Every structure is written in structure tokens, then in C-alpha cells.
Amino acid sequence: MTELKLQEYQFGEMKLTWLRGADKLTDAGTLFGPVPKVVWSRYYPTTEENMMAELTDPILIQYKGQNYLIDASFDTAKLSDKQRRNLGILSESRVEESLALLGLKTEDISHILMTHMHHDHSGGLTRLDENNQLVSKFPNAKIFVNEVEWYEMRNPNSRTRGTYLKENWEPIQDQVETFTEYLNVIPEIQMVHTGGHSNGHSIILLKQGEETMIHMADLVLTHAHRKPLWVAAVDDYPMRSIVAKDKWLKEAFENHYKFFFYHDQFFAVAEFDQTGEKFVDYVTRIREPRVPFTDKQDRKPSFL
């Protein structure tokens, strides 16, 4: 197992740290949806088998003595061989090890902000104990999730039952607090319901003085997804994704918000100009990409 180094970013008084979740390969067609491969393949690389690398790195925010976590990756120890194969798992989740590097335990997480409850975001909320029983991994945390998402998690339909799994929500249900459209976790941290990727999908805004960071979660899977019409085939409500992206991308570009990412293998943070086309500022990932750029990506950022 490789040496663990964690990505950090200081935003005012907030310290953001990307914990090490599981890396995975996903069929790129599912992540770019109706966009033709001849177009999207100029922006983002894949393997010869058309698989795209995704990270699933939970983002820890340390602020005023509290430890806030955005999403939870997988708990890879719970996965069967079949699940690992189908999910394209490349590496183990190392969230507990990441926290230990920071002098923390899972019991020290005070709040968890769930953008949505798909398996690659919620699987790490629970674990198997020494008796092989499912328990909460973060027993002292308040877990915030949109009320629509929480309902659909517990009542999956034929499309979503493969990603809304009982093992990921039953042990933590007494910790969950739901909200409708907006939630001020604290004045500087806000969750906003958007729908789209899932019916209860939410984004997260961080505020420090006049500056804002925005986490659009799976509406903007990577830096290449910042076009409103570039929605994934795995979005359950794609027209809602487009509406939400139109609104929030416009606001973010015009007001110089900094984006931060959970899945992108190249960027942790990025800011774009008012057109959304050019990078104004960025922080690249400190580790090497699983699937690097090639000469085929002639629309990749010019500085990479």
C-alpha cells in the first residue's frame, strides 16, 4: 500500500482536507450521457476500454473546533467481490487512516453533510464491527441530508435500488436530520437542494468574508462537466440537472466562486472566468492521476 499523503487547502479560517476514499473506474459513457464521445474525449482521458477514473474522497472541513465531513466514500471492507468488479474498485478506502494522520478518530466527526445517498457517497457511513454487525462509522455525528433524498433512500425504485442500500442507512437513521430546500448548518456553511442527479441531491456553499466556495457534487463531476448540458446518464432527472447547473454555474462564474471536487482526479479546487471557459485559479491534485491525459485531449487545460 502506498504512502498516504493528504491534500489540504486553507480557505479563510476553514481548513479543507481531502481524505483518501476508494478510487474507481467507471464507464465514461455513463458520466457524459448524451455528449458524443468525439466531443467529450477531447476534454477528459479514458483507458482503452473507455473507462474513466473517479476518486471518491470525502472532504473534511475543520472550523472553529468542529469537524465537518462532506460525504463518506465507500466502506470497501463491506463490498463483495461482485460489487468490487461491477463498481470498478481500484483501491481500498483509507478514511480512518486519513483521520489518524490528522490526529482524529471517526468519533471526532461532529457533522456529516451528505450531498446525496448514492452508494459511492454513503457506503462509508457504516462499517462491520467485531461481531460482523453493521454499525455507524461516525457515531457522534449529526448527518444532514435533504428530506426527499432520505425518503427515496429508504424507498428505492427499480432504477435506484442498486445504489440506495439498506446497509448504508439503517445503522445511522437515528443520527439523520433532514431539511427541505436550504439548510444553514452554521452561517458559513449552507446546503441547498437542487435535485437532478438524484431527486434529493444538494450542493454545498462555504463562506468566508466576501469569498465563496461551491461544491456542486455530482452535478459537476469533474472540471470538464461545467457546461450546463453536459449531464451524466446516471442523473435520474437530467432536465432538473440542467436547470440547476444553469442557475448555479452562472452565479458561480459571475461572482468568482471557487469550485471544489469529490470525484475529479486532476483538480481539488478551481476558479473560472465569467464565461466558465478559462481557469483563473486552481489547485491540482497532489497525487498522480489514475488515467493521465494523452495527446487526444487537445481541449485539456493548457497548463497541464
Automatic annotation (TrEMBL):
Pfam entry (one): Lactamase_B
SMART domains xref list: Lactamase_B
Principal EC category: hydrolase
Domain Metallo-beta-lactamase as annotated: residue spans: 55-256
UniProt EC number: 3.1.1.-
Repressor recorded as keyword: no
Keyword set, alphabetical order: Hydrolase, Metal-binding, Zinc
Any one Gene Ontology molecular-function term assigned to this protein's record: metal ion binding
InterPro entries per the UniProt record, alphabetical: MBL_superfamily_lactonases, Metallo-B-lactamas, RibonucZ/Hydroxyglut_hydro
Family: Belongs to the metallo-beta-lactamase superfamily.
Protein name per its UniProtKB record: Putative quorum-quenching lactonase YtnP
Species name: Streptococcus cristatus
